[in-house]
Amino acid sequence: MRAVQTLPEGYEAGERVDLQHDKATAVRVNVLSFLLAVPPALLMFLLRPEGSAFWEGENGSRLLKLAVMLLGYVVYIVLHELTHAAVMKLTGGGKVRFGFTGMYAYAGSEGDWFDRSAYVCIALAPLVVWGVIFAVMQAVISPDWYWIVGLWQLGNISGAAGDIYVTVKTLRSPADVLVRDTGLEMGYWQRKA
């Protein structure tokens, strides 16, 4: 797994994924996001049907739970992007740029091309890392807080729709593909035929 800062000879630009400007792809990713959330939500209801525990307690504790849930999700979004950035760095990437468009938060690198295995690791790292952390938290946390962590987990899974989309696209690309991820746009470079 590695990144290169100079495009090797014999490569040319191929397909692009642009979630900011390609509305059809954005719609597909958002539908995927919803579909990804349904199975874990059903599983959580099967494992802990007492979802009303979220709202039980005094008004002050309800507000506390709501504040923790919202603040925790904002913190999670930052940690999600930092996880992408950490794996970019671990695979040899250079400077990582962060941003938020109002719809998407992102981490990207304009000066790097990642090989297929590195890019799949970059794309899936937050889903895997935070999925495990949230699952462990759900297993050990008090029932009163289970659904708050569960909502973070749902956000992790459904929020990874774009990451899953580009992972599938990358795995369907030739083995020697190089991917440049600037944040909201992923470009695929392939060897000239």
| Low-confidence regions | none
Widest beta sheet: strand line-up: 1-5-6-7-2
Determine the number of helices (DSSP H or I, runs of at least 4 residues): 5
Biggest sheet statistics: 5 strands, antiparallel
Sketch the topology as an H/E string, one letter per element. EEHHEEEHHHEE
Kindly state the percentage of residues in helix: 55-70%
What's the Cα radius of gyration?
A: 19 Å
Strand content: 15-25%
Q: Look at the structure and give the mean pLDDT.
A: 89
Q: Helices and strands: which structural class? A: alpha+beta
Amino-to-carboxy terminus distance: 24 Å
Rough shape? elongated
State the total count of DSSP E strands.
7
| Overall tally of structural domains | 1
Entry summary:
With 193 residues, this protein is of the alpha+beta class.
What this model shows, in words?
The chain is α+β, with helices and mostly antiparallel strands and 193 residues long. The protein has one domain. Helix content is 57%, strand content 17%. The protein has helices at 23-47, 59-90, 116-140, 143-159, 161-171, and strands spanning 3-4, 11-18, 97-100, 105-108, 113-115, 178-181, 185-191. The strands form two sheets. Strands 1-5-6-7-2 form a five-stranded antiparallel β-sheet. Strands 3-4 form a two-stranded antiparallel sheet. A hairpin with a 3-residue loop joins strand 6 (178-181) and strand 7. The longest helix has 32 residues, at 59-90. The model has no long low-confidence stretch (mean pLDDT 89).
